[in-house]
Design brief:
Layout: H1 4-33, E1 47-53, H2 60-68, E2 77-84, H3 90-100, E3 104-109, H4 114-122, E4 129-134, E5 138-139, H5 143-148, E6 156-165, H6 174-191, E7 202-205, H7 218-228, E8 232-243, H8 249-269, H9 278-292, H10 294-308, H11 313-333, H12 341-364
Length: 377
């Protein structure tokens, strides 16, 4: 009992802080002492857009046609598809487009994962700005111009755009969580730098590009690495990209497990907490570290709550609340139509995904290659 109370209150405080307290504090602080990106016209720098692809025959032609239709001078744009040893018709389809479009180029890479393919492609590009996107994304016509605006500020090394998730075919409720994340990302950007990006639409100055460990993802590694070098990583909400999320919450769960394995890898091996200014370090701990550990915190909270349930009304109410939320999630899993059931299931599965991901990382490490999530093409 001596340890149960500190565990209860510490885990509860950490969960409330990472999910509610920190977002509110970041939003308020951004209003009070925001650090806006200097406005200006970046002009039309040369841009190399890199799309990493593995067996993307279903979407790669659409992706290239979308990029070729961007509102940007064609002579200032080059498009690279980094094929990660695709075994379907991806290479053939890209090559066919390249034969009629001089700005398109196929780079065949040995199977090494997304980041390895991106690193290999960057070495063959010439653009002043390096832009990246997923094969299943589409960009708004003015997305690239919007993405380049922050680079008028010489302190900005990295910028990510706003990913809009289209309606899933099934039960996934990622969209609600993602809108919350984008709001928080806007606050972090106004404070100085974001703590995470997204792989659908982002760009970095060539002079700031880093070849990170192929097991790391750019969206998680680049922002904090830029800040460690005294640079800024910002969010540009006017740069729109669109993607279809995983079809069902179970598919999203498997995607989250793979993603969180990389998150744990970066935390434990990527020197994520070193050499950061105090405010940004607090952001990283609040938004990333505590969020990655949310599953462990929930387990600690539930275990201590059940132990203390008969020792006070507060603990009894906490037990009822947590068991009720789990019951609602179970109803959502069974397809019972109750208000909030699917959202409760999503939160529960994502929290548990952090635990399974940590166990997977400790057990077998993290491979650099990836699998596509079901229903996202």
């Amino acid at each position: 009992m001596t340890a149960a109370k500190p565990i209860f209150w510490t885990s509860l405080a950490a969960l409330v802080w990472t999910h509610a307290g920190y977002p509110l504090a970041a939003g308020l602080l951004a209003r009070v002492r925001g650090r806006p990106v200097r406005e200006g016209d970046p002009g039309t720098p040369s841009v190399s857009v890199i799309v990493a692809a593995w067996n993307e025959e279903a979407v790669i032609e659409r992706r290239l046609e979308n990029l070729l239709a961007l509102d940007y001078p064609r002579e200032r744009l080059e498009l690279f598809v980094a094929s990660d040893a695709s075994t379907d018709r991806t290479d053939e389809l890209v090559q066919a487009v390249a034969e009629r479009e001089p700005s398109v180029r196929l780079i065949r890479c040995p199977r090494g994962g997304k980041v390895d393919a991106q690193n290999r492609s960057v070495r063959q590009t010439s653009g002043e700005i390096l832009a990246f996107s997923d094969a299943n994304a589409t960009w708004a016509p003015d997305a690239l111009r919007a993405l380049l605006r922050p680079f008028a500020d010489p302190e900005v090394a990295y910028a990510c755009g706003r990913l809009v998730l289209e309606r899933a075919d099934g039960t996934n409720r990622e969209g609600a969580y993602w809108r919350y994340e984008l709001w928080l990302r806007g606050s972090e950007s106004r404070l100085g730098s974001v703590t995470g990006g997204n792989g659908s639409i982002y760009a970095v100055r060539r002079s700031d590009y880093l070849e990170v460990d192929p097991r790391f993802g750019h969206d998680l590694a680049f922002p904090y690495r830029m800040v460690q070098r005294g640079r800024r990583a910002v969010y540009e909400p006017a740069a729109l990209a669109f993607e279809k999320p995983s079809r069902d919450v179970e598919d999203e769960y498997r995607r989250k497990v793979r993603m969180f394995e990389h998150c744990w890898l970066i935390v434990l091996e990527g020197r994520m907490l070193r050499g950061l200014p105090p405010l940004y370090l607090a952001q990283i701990v609040s938004h990333r570290l505590l969020r990655y550990g949310s599953g462990l915190l929930h387990l600690a909270l539930l275990g201590s709550t059940l132990f203390l349930a008969r020792r006070g009304r507060v603990y009894a109410l906490a037990a009822v609340g947590q068991l009720g939320a789990l019951g609602l999630a179970a109803a959502g899993h069974r397809g019972v139509r109750l208000p909030g059931a699917q959202l409760a299931l999503y939160v529960t599965l994502v929290s548990w995904a952090t635990v399974e991901a940590l166990a997977g990382y400790l057990r077998h490490g993290v491979p650099p290659v990836w699998e596509k999530a079901e229903g996202t093409r």
